[in-house]
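Task: sequence design from structure.
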């Protein structure tokens, strides 16, 4: 599946991608459960952009349900991976404003550690727990799907 975006001008890139993905799903060109390109491939395609992977390890509804004030003892941490330190720092600041702690998960090449079927995928963890889950990930080992009912914070 190909996506086409206009990089010149002020049109929002995320909105363009969202609309095209939504249309692809609605027309059946992209089926439920289909895999999108890995972050590294996306970064290679958008050479003038800085790709930061961050919201892959949280269910959409949990973004509002799990947000907590800075310093809260039950504050959830999210992994952040990317190749640009400045862009990662900006994303980490954004996460703090949204109500989450962050753990630097390394470069995009290390972002497999919080993909589907890995210990950090969509499991509410604090910073020490998330660091341990990322370290425990094994590339060739897949865990069972996350049980949504037992991951509520």
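Answer:
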């Amino acid at each position: 599946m190909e996506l086409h975006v206009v990089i010149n001008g002020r049109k929002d890139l995320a909105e363009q991608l969202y609309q095209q993905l939504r249309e692809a799903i609605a027309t059946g060109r992209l089926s439920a459960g289909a895999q999108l390109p890995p972050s590294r491939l996306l970064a290679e395609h958008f050479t003038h952009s800085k790709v930061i992977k961050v919201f892959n390890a949280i269910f959409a509804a949990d973004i509002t349900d799990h947000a907590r004030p800075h310093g809260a003892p039950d504050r959830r941490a999210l992994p952040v991976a990317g190749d640009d330190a400045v862009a990662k720092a900006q994303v980490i600041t954004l996460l703090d404003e949204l109500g989450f702690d962050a753990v630097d998960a390394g470069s995009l090449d290390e972002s497999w550690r919080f993909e589907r079927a890995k210990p950090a995928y969509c499991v509410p963890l604090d910073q020490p727990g998330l660091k341990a889950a990322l370290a425990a990930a094994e590339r060739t080992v897949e865990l069972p799907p996350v049980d949504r009912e037992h991951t509520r914070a």
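Residues 38 and 92 are 21 Å apart (CA to CA).
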